[in-house]
Specification:
The chain is α/β, with parallel strands linked by helices and about 525 residues long.
Length: about 525
């Protein structure tokens, strides 16, 4: 065993997208920087399919320069679609639907993270990073302002390296945050998920469904199959993400305060399929599908964050810095902001520049971004996403404000905009207050609808087909119409809750999909 310390300027713990992207950003500015990446796997395993949205698509394509690779090796994504059902819903054809009528106008992709991560790590190595693989980081000894020590294990035993900076890109492992006592579970959002890869999933855009449901097929002039399709229920939702090569990623996410996942001796994959097929839209798409053996996963307590995001000598990126919820795929946007700011922080220290103010701003901005992002978009959201009318109003507002206050910034300012995490400064601050407001109002209306027994009454036979948004002034009329839809909802029924702050959430129940179907 070689016990001599290895000496670097940057040691990155984890070679998947967050770690490899950080290495690329650093080496682009400082090609001679001594960077080592410790990656525990010999090859990245197949992971849950993941969708990019417009900001993360900008980061991958325009900042990392992956557009050609993504177009050749991944699927172009055609927005998001939502499917609803109640006791009157008999099939996919009369499931209520929210989604785009046409193709999307800004790029995004459905990505197989295993292959994407391999490509970005390969590029990092090509740029000059040293890749140690398989090499598992065991412990980090921090010395703020000095040399950090990393103990790791390779095939030939334990070794030690030193580096001025350690970048924690360990994903859900959250190595540094847990080691240092920074890690915190998000108790306000007790969500869990079960998922798998599937084969034999029906073609959304094929002739079989078009012949079976001609009016349904004619309603959409774009492509449904390469959208992220969501099956919606009371307290839960399921995703359906196609991947290059024919596999489909599908899984269920639920709020444990509202839904109890059914226990029992039945294998998880069978319970997951039964759950998906209980929804009329899911039954049509998945009844002949089978999960890939050995590729069925479960994770509880999805949401967490860190109380510290950086110290002088260490910085957290991607999922190692926090995770909120899979709905709307915010993880890739979060990765874009955290890696951009981490690279800037490290480069500033090497010039050198004073770090005290930078570190304070880094921690302040990402704490504020996580808290506001969660509070605005996800706090109690699972109480109303299962209702077609409530989600159609909320989704149009979410989408319009995301385009106006978030997507517009990198398209106008370039990669400089990724220095400012969402909802911290600038144009994204007013959307935070607006989203926070109507999310609370939709939650109150959902609770009142349950009390009156009318929750989900519009979940069958309705269709909301959107023309789409653009991140410019052309989105203003659509956003005004969405605000008008909220106002009408308030005047029609929201008044019932204006002076009732004590409406209680629904009690937890054994998961079915949907509860009345």
């Amino acid at each position: 065993m070689d016990s001599r310390p290895l000496d670097y300027e940057v040691a990155i713990l984890g070679g998947s997208l967050a770690g490899a992207a950080t290495a690329l950003l650093l080496l682009r500015e400082q090609p001679n920087l001594r960077i080592v990446v410790l990656e525990k796997s010999t090859r990245f395993p197949r992971r849950v399919g993941e969708a990019t949205v417009e900001v993360s698509a900008y980061f991958l394509g325009r900042v990392l320069g992956l557009t050609q690779y993504l177009n050749e090796s991944q699927l172009n994504k055609q927005g998001m679609r939502f499917w609803f059902a109640n006791s009157k819903t008999t099939s996919l054809g009369n499931s209520s639907e929210v989604g785009g009528r046409y193709l999307t106008r800004l790029p995004s992709w459905q990505v197989d993270r295993g292959t994407l991560d391999e490509e970005v790590l390969r590029r990092a190595a090509e740029a000059g990073a040293r890749i140690l693989r398989p090499a598992k980081a065991l412990r980090v000894q921090l010395s703020e302002g000095g040399r950090q020590t990393v103990e790791f294990e390779e095939a030939n035993g334990k070794q030690t390296l030193t580096a001025r900076w350690v970048v924690d890109a360990s994903g859900f492992t959250c190595m540094l945050a847990r080691q240092q006592g920074w890690w915190r579970r998000n108790e306000a959002h007790p969500t869990s998920a079960a998922w798998a890869r599937w084969r034999g999933v029906k073609d959304w855009d094929g002739l079989e469904l078009a012949k079976k449901f001609p009016c349904w097929a004619a309603a959409c002039h774009g492509v449904r199959g390469t959208a992220t399709n969501h099956f919606m229920g009371d307290g839960w939702w399921a995703w359906c993400i196609p991947l290059k090569g024919g596999d489909v990623s599908a899984g269920v996410v639920f709020d444990g305060r509202l839904v109890r996942w059914p226990d029992g001796p039945t294998p998880l994959g069978e319970r997951l399929k039964e759950f998906l097929c209980a929804h009329p839209a899911g039954r049509e798409i998945f009844h002949q599908a089978d999960p890939v053996e050995g590729d069925i996963k479960w994770r509880a307590n999805l949401a967490y964050s860190s109380t510290v995001f950086a110290v002088d000598g260490a910085v957290l990126v991607g999922d190692a810095a926090g995770f909120m919820d899979p709905l709307y795929s915010p993880g890739m946007d979060w990765l874009s902001y955290t890696t951009t700011r981490a690279a800037e922080l490290i480069l500033a220290s090497l010039r050198p520049e004073p770090l005290l103010d930078r570190l304070a701003a880094h921690n302040r901005d990402f704490r504020r971004s996580y808290d506001r992002w969660f509070e605005a978009l996800y706090l109690n959201k699972y109480e109303w996403i299962g209702d077609f009318e409530l989600l159609s109003v909320g989704f149009k507002l979410d989408l319009g404000l995301y385009y106006a206050g978030v997507v517009s910034q990198p398209l106008r300012e370039g990669s400089m905009a990724l220095r400012h995490p969402v909802f911290c400064v600038g144009l994204s601050t007013p959307p935070y207050w607006m989203i926070r407001c109507y999310n609370r109002r939709l939650t109150a209306m959902a609770r009142d609808r349950r009390r009156r027994g009318v929750f989900g009454n519009a979940n069958t036979g309705r269709r909301q087909m959107l023309a789409g948004f653009l991140p410019d002034t052309s989105a203003v009329p659509a956003l005004i119409r969405a605000l008008g839809g909220w106002l009408k909802l308030e005047l029609r029924e929201g008044w019932r809750t204006w002076f009732r702050s004590n409406l209680e959430s629904a009690p937890a129940r054994t998961a079915t999909a949907p509860a009345s179907a």
